[in-house]
Every structure is written in structure tokens, then in C-alpha cells.
Amino acid sequence: MNPSTSALLTDLYELTMAQAYLEEEMDKLAVFEFFVRKLPAHRNFLLAAGLEQVLDYLSELRVTQEELAWLDQSKQFRPRLLHYLETLRFTGDVEAMPEGTTFFPHEPILRIVAPLPQAQLVESRVMNLLSFQTMVASKAARSVLVSGGKPLIDFGLRRAHGAEAGLLAARASYLAGFAGTATVLAGMAYGVPLYGTMAHSFVLAHQDETLAFEHFAKIHPDNAILLIDTYNTEAAADKVVALAQRLHTTGITFKGVRLDSGDLADHARNVRQILDGGGLSEVEILASGNLDEYRLRDLVQTGAPIDSFAVGTAMATSSDAPSLDCAYKLQEYAGRPCRKRSEGKATWPGRKQVYRSYTDSGYLAHDIITTDDDQQSGQPLLQPVMKKGRRLVVSPPLAEVRRQAAAQLGRLPPSLRTLETVPAYDVRISQALQSLAQTVDRSL
To answer: Mapping DSSP to helix (H, G, I), strand (E, B) and coil, where does residue 335 land?
Structure first.
């Protein structure tokens, strides 16, 4: 059994709810929407990601015989539910914002219309897939926006919260604008470009640092990026210069050096001077070591001579905002609009659309959330992607999604592109949606 694709990767109450719906014969069409209630602290926008994995999940939704047998043995479920699960397939419709779309609180980025038991059963996994990749892509985008165009590489696998998280973080960060990843499976699964250097253990396993550099360069002559902070960074840079002069006659050249500790700006300036003085001006400097968007911004703004950066833990775990206040709520059942009115968690009822308007300069001006039958001026963001359980179009290549994200980030107003918290983007609630909410409230 593959846990990441199992239909039992869900919360117990999804099954108990489905069982109750079936027993009560509540199987009419339900409308659920996924949205974020509020932005995490210090965030000015979010970047939608994870739709591709949601569509894969819905397309392949099955309950295996092994899983059915286990459910039966648990003695928690009635035969009617077990029979329903035996032939379970997703037959609903899906509308969504394309991956790489910027969005804001209360804007639905995905809508599922399906028989109520189906729409309920998929809740936990849909939320899991959308919230994680959106969280990571949004964090990664902040680094992209302050990097000054310098390449960023995902080094997050080893600190990620599990195998799937590490793999999807590589995908989400590339979608957001990273140049590539060190996670090899992401190259095979998603076509993300792979980057890597060498380990401190390789240097430590040699009695002589220069000999370690030489062996690595001879084994990897086309990608010799040397890690030079195992002992003394500047002394290692001197060794790189001397070794480069000796290996020059063999046709081996160094691609770069990597700094992973200490005052990165100070070391980078010293190393750049040493390399340039030794005729190695073409050798690039890669920096890593607990970087996040704030350290990146400072290094770029102070002019540290660093050519590229590797970002790991902070991005793959979204360390300063490791979760989203997101929801997947019932907005309509059997044609009747529904509205949750819990304190601090009220929802807008019915099927909705988001229209986006732009300034004359091409930047985002404002969004309007309205009912899906109330056409407004601007660009509608939710698009049909699945009908009766089948995809409507072939999924775009990840490289195309990456271009979509870059275009979206480029249209953010300059104030939203900074790391400072600024006044919230203008998201308006239409009169039609307000009227519908009032009608629902009067009926309660």
C-alpha cells in the first residue's frame, strides 16, 4: 500500500460523515470551496499551488480490497458504507485558479461539485495537498522577489517533514521561481533541474583538503563546485587557486565554490578577492546555510559578491508561517446556499467567482468576490478543470506553470512585493454576494 495515494489517508470523521449521509440518503450535489481565511503574519499575498496533485488524487480515487477488509474488521462501519466504498470513483466537477496564481483571503481557489458523500470524503487530502504546496510556494516566492534575479536552489529535503513534503517542496519552490533542487526524485518526477556540490564528509574523509578538492574535480570535471568552509574558508580559497593553476593543463576547471557557514557576506568578499587575484574570476560563489528571504535580502542589498543561493530548512518548512488558516467548506447543498456563521469563521454562501482588475500600468488593482452568476468586469480567476470526474485539458508542463507564476508575481503592486507588512490588497465583496448572505441569514 502506498500511503500517499490511499483513500484512507483521511480523517475518521470523513468516513463517519459519509456513512451518516448514506444512511440518511443525503447524496445530492454538494458544493465545497477551498479558501484561506487570513494571510499568515508578514505575508502580503499567497501563490496557489498543488492543484496538479489534487487532480491526480481525484482521478485515481479508489478503495482497495485490502483497505475494505481492514475497514470491515474494525467494526466501526456499516455494510452500506463498505459497499459504497467498494465502487467509489470521483464523478464530480472541479473549478480552480490555475497553479501559480496569486490570491488573497476569502477567495476560493478551488471548488468541488459532487454528490455529498464524495465531496466530503476527499476533504482532508485536498486540503493537505493544496495548503502545503501553497504555503511553500508562497514562502519561496518571497525569496525570489528579493534575490535580485540570482538563482535560488532548493536544499530542503533533509529537513523537510517527511518524504512527500520534501518532494513537493522541490516542486512548489521551482513553480515559484527557484532555479532547481538538490532532490533527485524531483528531477525524475517533475523535470525540475538538479543542482549539487560536495559534502563536508568528503573533505573530512581525506587527510588533505587539497587532495579532496583534486579528487572531486577529476571525478566531476563538468560540475566541480567545491565546499570550502570545512576548516578555514579563506585558506581553502587559496588552495583552490593553487590547484586550479596545476590542473589547468589537464583541461579541468572549477565551476564554483560554496560557502556554508559564518559571515557569508564577509567570507564572500574575501573569497572573491582571492579568486580574482588568482585569475579565477569566472569561478562563481554559491552560498548556503540557514538562509531565508530576510538574509537573502540583506546579502543582496549589501552587494555581497554571491552568484547564487541554496535555501533549505526555512523554505521547505515555511518556518516562520508553517501552516495556513485554510478551510474547505460546504457552500451549497441540493441547490440551497449554505453559510457557516461561527464567530470568527463565518463564510460567504453559494458558488463564487473571483474577478481581477488591473491598473493602466498592468499591476493588480482590486479583486471582487461574487456569486458565480453575477458577471463583473475584470478577469475571472476560477476555471473549469474537471467534469464528471474527467480532466478537461491536459495539465500544463511545470515549466509553463512556472512562467505563469513569474508573470503573476510581476503584476503584484511594488508594495506587495516587499517583505514589509503593508495595507491589505483591495478585495471587495459584491452586492450580489452580500444579498445572498442576508437571504441565507433570514432563512436560518
So the answer is: coil
